[in-house]
Design a protein that fits this description.
Layout lengths: L3 E5 L13 E5 L5 H8 L10 H9 L6 H4 E6 L2 E10 L5 E8 L8 H16 L7 E5 L4 H9 L3 E2 L6 H12 L5 E3 L5 E5 L1
Parallel strand pairs: 5-6
Antiparallel strand pairs: 1-6, 1-7, 2-3, 3-4, 4-5, 8-9
């Protein structure tokens, strides 16, 4: 089953500062091990190795880790990560969003999404630019952050409308319009 897709038109990016006690920074050499450890909390399996870093980050031709990979730190310790980069096709992409379980519930997801989206808005010249992300139906806390952050569900495959209706019903959220893969309104409000 294909993942859920969401698009952001860069028309409204909520300003969400990093909560007290946390900071945000870009990748520094040696962070690969921390990235893998963070991504073991929901994105990669518990046995993930540096191969996951290579596959997800280094094997993407337009990702430059020192520019595109961000870490939220508690003190000096990275506890969450997000990647925001421009793909070869010119579309922005939010990629590999993860947070250690012991750092959840502080609002750092909103802060790092806001940070990455502002960076992408600066990277994507002109109007009409889009940022895409994919996620899973069961990642409900992440979906809430994305919806509140201005992302729209995308109708791009069979069953997407029904899946999105089910997700929104579980979240008690609705009223957003679905978009096509090109960012056009579908007329379907979920």
């Amino acid at each position: 089953m294909r993942q859920l897709m969401m698009l952001h038109k860069l028309d409204f990016i909520p300003d969400c500062p990093v909560p007290e006690g946390f900071s945000i920074r870009t990748y520094e050499p040696g962070d690969e091990v921390k990235w893998v450890e963070i991504c073991k909390h929901g994105l990669c399996g518990p046995d993930a190795t540096l191969d996951a870093w290579r596959d997800a980050i280094l094997n993407r031709e337009t990702i430059v880790p020192s520019r595109d990979v961000f870490f939220v730190c508690r003190g000096n310790e990275p506890v969450a990560t997000i990647t925001g980069y421009v793909r070869p096709d010119g579309r922005g992409d939010i990629h590999m969003v993860a947070c250690r379980e012991d750092a959840r519930g502080h609002g750092i997801g909103k802060a790092m999404l806001s940070h990455a989206m502002k960076k992408l808005k600066a990277d994507l010249p002109g109007d009409g630019q889009l940022v895409e992300l994919t996620t899973d139906d069961f990642r409900l806390p992440a979906v809430v952050v994305y919806l509140r952050g201005g992302f729209h569900p995308v109708l791009y495959d069979e069953g997407m409308e029904e899946r999105w209706r089910a997700v929104c019903a579980k979240l008690g959220m609705g009223g957003g319009e679905m978009l096509t893969e090109e960012g056009e309104p579908t007329g379907i409000v979920i």
